[in-house]
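Homework help thread (please don't just give me the answer)

Our assignment gives two proteins as sequence + structure token strings and asks us to describe the second one. The first is just a warm-up. Here they are:
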Amino acid sequence: MNDPKNTAFVLTALNVLEKREAGMPEVGAGDVLIKLEAVGVCGSDVHYYQHGVVGDFKVTFPFILGHECAGTVVEVGAGVRGVHVGDRVAVEPGVPCGKCEMCRTGHYNLCPDVKFLATPPYDGCLMEYLAFPAEYVYKLPENMTAEMGALVEPTAIGMNAALTGGVKTGDTVVIFGAGCIGLVSLLAAKAAGAARAVVVDLLPLRLAKALELGADAVVDSSQADLDERLRQACEGRGADVVLDCAGVNPTIRAAVQIARPAAAIVIVGMGANEISGVPLGPISTKELRITSLFRYKNLYPRTIAAIASGKLDVSGIVSKRFAFDETPEAFASAANDAANTVKNMICY
């Protein structure tokens, strides 16, 4: 490499991103150096950008955002096997400790000491070069673009949602929320065999996108009589699986109502820290199984294979594309123009 320079976009205050010089990352044993080519703007990134906090995680300025990324390997560290210079790769952004009880019992996504990109205190990937452990870097097939590689991260959450809910051939699935996670959950549910997928949202653009991506029916949650319109959309049968990608009082309450007896409800998104007004009677009398998920584990290879095969067609997810130097515009758009945004992608 001919003395490359690394620049990053740094969050220096709420709603303020500044381009700054960043030192070239050190490539340690077991690491690879990636020249990044695409970074997706996630909802958590936008929340940090606007509020500086997500749940218990609080930003200390300056801070670098971004965790959905892909690029090309330009250097490999000592001991790296299976990843080579020139490989185009997607990055699984969380590196667990590998030693705790959660890691040792196969739940590495729940590792309390995970180092996750753009989750304080760890900086993210909104830079030109990123050094990362090769163990969590996955080669992309020739037919996948860097943009598709950056979409592997949210799509893995959608895959996890369908798997956690146990979606099977012939099921009716209701999905609350038609942002990026709701839409990739829709794709995953249909790929798993759902016969009917109903998507609920209040933004017309997102409802239209859900239909474009294969939803069998959509329901506008801003209108009255949500329960009845949901029942009609499910053809009077109710839902075998509900994937709540919004996670607020109205959606969780409606999920309990539309779920069939013995159905599964998966809380995928967390739009509120607390819920109230959720009826317990139907949960008991219908023997509903309510569960949740946190990110994903062991799903990157399967997600990449599903995208490459065309079983999960993510090509319609991105709504707006921005150059690297337009990163501030990409975040401002996501934060202030949600009605016209599903997923913003920064393309280098």
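The one we have to describe:
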Amino acid sequence: MTRIYITTAIPYVNASPHLGHALEFVQADILARGWRLRGDEVRFLSGTDDNSLKNVLAAEASGLPVGEFVTRRADEFEFLGRLLGLSLDDYIRTSTDPRHRPGVEKLWQRAAASGDLYLRDYEGLYCVGCEQFYKPQELADGRCPEHGTEPEVVSERNWFFRLSRYTTDLLETIESGRLRIEPPARQNEVLGLLRSGLEDISVSRAAERARGWGIPVPGDSDQVIYVWYDALGNYVSALGYGTDDPDYSHWWLESDERVHVIGKGILRFHAVYWPAFLLSAGEPLPTAIFVHDYLTTDGAKISKSAGSYADPAQLVESHGGDSLRWWFAAEVPPIGDVDFTEQRLVDRVNQDLANGFGNLVNRIQTLIEKHRPGVIPTPPADDPLVGRLTDARSSVHRALDRFDIRGAATEVSSLIGAANAYIQQHPPWELASAGEWDEFDRVLGSLHHVAATVAELLGPFVPGVAAKAQAHLQGSGTGVVQPRLQRPA
């Protein structure tokens, strides 16, 4: 049994969650559920990044105190996780969770003990949206390449981290495969960044500019810890790093896999900054970073600040959480942005789940109830359709291990297609009419076994649909009915 610790990035709570957040939550949940299905020991963490300047500015614009604003927005993200049926083991809010500050302070103190922190005056171009300084040559026509906004000139005295010291170590770690980045194109992107050379980075902000919001720098109350140093620390602070909690040993020091699921816009922070912070602190690194691209509407990145927005909670209320989960699984490729429309969602779900799998299950169960009530025929071991199952199961798990969620979903869809082709090639209703009961039982047994296996394999992708199908195939009604959830006030 493999022990796996998997996390999502923790989003800023400066605005309500959008569809891109839902994508990442669901992708990580599919992996966690898939690994549990295989028999692995899994811990799944998500949460919210509360201690950012973006949140402070958004609170000021709303007229609410920062703490109240952050709590309201964080409630929305946690509610979305429940709507999507996430199988979370833990959830952390960095402004209020008592585990977080001791962990971040310990990371800072360990870096200081390694000689990796120093004070210096600095002036640079700062994008509040990214919470990052940019060099002029990194801008696109003078604007942030991620947000399209003009960065502001910031001049202050900050603590800096000796990132340049870790260039060689990071290169060797990634090139050796000890830190795997998927898909390979993203790994090549990081290697290119490292080979071009790293510069030291600012890891604190003036407390005055941060309005006092955030974790103070140990021993320097005029500064707060840079939000990315703070936020990245959640992956270990949630395990009790900085305390005597045994979860840190169990899930970080002793895990076989430590996996982060993130968007491409924050790759540098996770694949360069975070491993360097851990090396400085003398702690083990993540073993894998899985990177997704963006969802778009009309070719533009989904972003509330950019004016392109899709409300995932509203989509769930209209179409169901499993519908949205399946669209993410079946339509979003391992690399490349993909355009979302509500019609594409409806078409994909109708094709695969309603017409493809739903009709198959209903046909099988109707035949059993009519001709073999209370009896499920035994599938023959030599049936070619049944023979596909072992390879299909292995293919699904291999695809999930390389963060090819669409590939895994396609494998399940292919099995559904094969079962529907089989029922047309060997129509059991004709066998029943002809009184060929031995052949009828052989065909129906194969179909039932394959449909039950498909329902099991669908569990990580669409847990509600899978549970209902399993109950239906077992003759126990329509399965579990999930209660309607209410939005936070």
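TA reply:
I won't write it for you, but here's a hint about the kind of observation we're looking for: The longest helix spans residues 342-371.
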